[in-house]
Amino acid sequence: MKYTHTIIACLVMIAGSxxxxxxxxxxxPAVPGDMGIPERTLLKIKELGxxxxxxxxxxxxxxxxxxxxxxxxxxxxxxxxxxxxxxxxKSEQYRTNNLITGLPRVITISVTNLPAIYATATDIAISRYxxxxxxxxxxxxxxxxxxxxxxxxxxxxxxxxxxxxxxxSGNPPSPIxxxxxxxGLGSSPDVNYLATVIAHxxxxxxxxxxxxxxxxxxxxxxSPYPNEGDAGVGAINIPGTPAAEDPNSWMLACIGSGSNRxxxxxxxxxxxxxxxxxxxxxxxxGTYKIIxxxxxKALDVYNASVADGGIVVQWTYAxxxxxxxxxTYLGNGFYKIAxxxxxKVLDVYGAATDNGGEVVxxxxxxxxxxxxxxxxxxxxxxxxxxxxxxKALDVYGASQDNGGKVVQWTYAxxANQRWYIQPI
Length: 424
Fold this sequence. Notes:
The protein contains six helices and 24 strands. The strands form eight sheets. The protein has a six-stranded antiparallel sheet with strand order 21-20-17-16-13-24. The chain has two domains: about 5-280, Collagenase (Catalytic Domain) (3-Layer(aba) Sandwich); about 285-424, Trefoil (Trefoil (Acidic Fibroblast Growth Factor, subunit A)), CATH 2.80.10.50. The protein is elongated, with a radius of gyration of 23 Å. It is an alpha+beta fold. The relative contact order is 0.12. GO terms for molecular function: metallopeptidase activity.
């Protein structure tokens, strides 16, 4: 995160405020700071989903997006192949490919070599997360935390820097570095402002991109390269977050000096979606496609049947109404899931309790075999469990074929029992 005094030469002037993104006096467009960095290194940074604009070399690695440290070791291990889970950013909130796994889980955080107010502010930041009842919680410890918050002299206007995003094993990076120098946060900043900066950097460690990823000029003022993405690489949107700019999100790229940004409603939706807040309703009411993790095929009412008993299969997604589903939260952790084309709901035929019980569509009657618990798996996918049997929605035999039958089966965490729920 960055800030500087806004000056009269900025294209967008914000009177009396400080922002994290530098506004520099320019007689011509700014030149990216990555000109001396090897092209292969930039391709690897891009492959990881980070912007390649203004990348800077630093001891042991590189700094991307102003506050993300990428180690030389991590880049050596990165291959250059397209990521299927990244897309061009638009305007929702965004997450990274990897998230924290092993939920429910407690992440320990320590604070070293910083003034006492930084520990107090860390406690406030932690309390903001823990108050949401997520399956991911935080605890401050005296030393040796899984994430260590430490002092670093980062230069004028730079407030903090995260070591990156969760790794492929689902663990957070460390450390978070904070600039307690007079040209950064200082030794005695406003405690809620400091808590907001810390909560922001913690957000990166658990998989959040900037809310204004697609256009950081929204919070930072003018920039010659407003999209943090590069060459079509974006980020994974979080369903249920707004389709327009969000002026108060804790994950905006820049912030006014002294500002306090506790989580707003959209932030809470995003955190609940990724980390199953309260373990109840992680998917907002709405219309979605349901995609099998193992095959990439969509949940489909076979042959667009409108009859009770129409069988449910998987099929290549074609955007048709018999592949679209309306989620309606019923309370107590359960949903009805209705086909857009027929209005009938997912149903375990005959209220079977055995493995292999057939899944069909049927007129909604409110019974247990028509209600589904939706639980986050911690990797962006979900399991759907029938209320009456507690068995999972499953593609029978791990079929990869169009027409593969969908049944219920005891949940084992395998890919043919995990589903992406993606908004239409």
